[in-house]
Amino acid sequence: MSIPLVLKKRLAQLRTLVDYHQKRYHEDDAPEISDETYDSLVKELSLLEIKTSSTRGKVAEKIGGSVSEAFAKVKHIVPQWSFDNVFSAEELVDWEGKLLRQLEQVDLKKTRVSYVAEHKIDGLKLVLTYKEGLLVRAVTRGDGVTGEDVTHTAKTIKDIPLKLLYPVDLICVGEVWLAKKEFERINKERAVAGEALFANPRNAAAGSLRQLDPEIARRRHLSMFCYDIDMFTAGRAKLVPPATQYEELALLAQLGLPTNSYPKKCSTLKKVITFYNQWKDKHHELPYGVDGVVVKVDNIEIQKSVGYTTKAPRFGIAFKFPAEQTTTVVENIGLQVGRTGVVTPVAHLRPVLIAGSTVARATLHNEDQIKRLDVRIGDTV
């Protein structure tokens, strides 16, 4: 199949853009664009690769970021995945259709499927390992295969018990987050000290956890919710292994680990959508950042049966909240040259807060986009 030149250029441009912003978000903890804008770029790249029958590049399939040389590298015993995203009820229904077709392929066509809906916490993924109930290691997701050993800073998080209530062997996964009020306090202190401000609570949490000095993390009062179990051996505790996602959450709480208060068992996808709509408007009232709802098949045997793609579990999906909108002013328009030589125009904006992130730059994609929008310095956008 011959790919038109204009599409080839757009593919190259999108891969450069997504790769750049992945690094700014996951590795530098300093995003330049909103999560919604990043999601839209990834979605456009994925769709364009499908449309052109182009081999899906490593950029679109990439999980997390590279591991910093400043930390000891730890290979995950269980690979760490990233959920695919949907942005509408129609896309969620399409996802369920794919799931049901997958069940047919594994001879589970008549199996009744129910779900658990949970807040999608806007934080940093952390993997905790316990041996006979004692915390032995805390590792970031990293690239999904290898993570960073941040045990020294994780131990400063009051939510994380150094000793469980039962002497079990456990690998569990959760999200480290920073309370909105704590984020505001830290940025006020940084402003007084003349230091660069954190863009949002998520990146402040990531920057705090990935510190060589644990006292910095201790002073920033991080929090954590655990939501998944990768491995579990009851040993002398004689606890029953969970058979469902909801039972996993209950077991985590029973062991003394911090869990979120709002998971919802949903017998149908319609009830998932009801849960989503309940939180779409009122999630701002929560002390932590939430950017959507994570939907998982409740039955763990079904989860194992449908498995994973190269990047994400087939049994779960992230149903993202709508992008927020606001206005600001274009203060300048510059050019950004990527590593491959692709030149991208960038609008420098009067800083504005969107969905908890300070946005000061916006990619204009190409000259045609600038002409179409007639974007000029001084414009309100």
Automatic annotation (TrEMBL):
State the reactions this protein catalyses. NAD(+) + (deoxyribonucleotide)n-3'-hydroxyl + 5'-phospho-(deoxyribonucleotide)m = (deoxyribonucleotide)n+m + AMP + beta-nicotinamide D-nucleotide
Q: Name one GO biological process term.
A: DNA replication
Broadest EC class?
A: ligase
Q: Does the keyword Ligase apply?
A: yes
Q: Where is the NAD-dependent DNA ligase N-terminal domain?
A: 6-381
Q: What is its EC number?
A: 6.5.1.2
Q: Which SUPFAM superfamilies match?
A: DNA ligase/mRNA capping enzyme, catalytic domain (SSF56091), Nucleic acid-binding proteins (SSF50249)
* Gene3D superfamilies assigned to the protein according to its UniProt record, in alphabetical order: DNA ligase/mRNA capping enzyme, Helix hairpin bin, Nucleic acid-binding proteins
The UniProt keywords, alphabetically, are: DNA damage, DNA repair, DNA replication, Ligase, NAD
A single GO molecular function term of this UniProt record: DNA ligase (NAD+) activity
Kindly give the InterPro entries that the UniProt entry links to this protein: DNA_ligase_CS, DNAligase_adenylation, DNAligase_N, NA-bd_OB-fold, NAD_DNA_ligase_OB
Can you say what this protein is called?
A: DNA ligase (NAD(+))
Q: In which organism is this protein found?
A: Candidatus Kaiserbacteria bacterium CG_4_9_14_0_2_um_filter_41_32
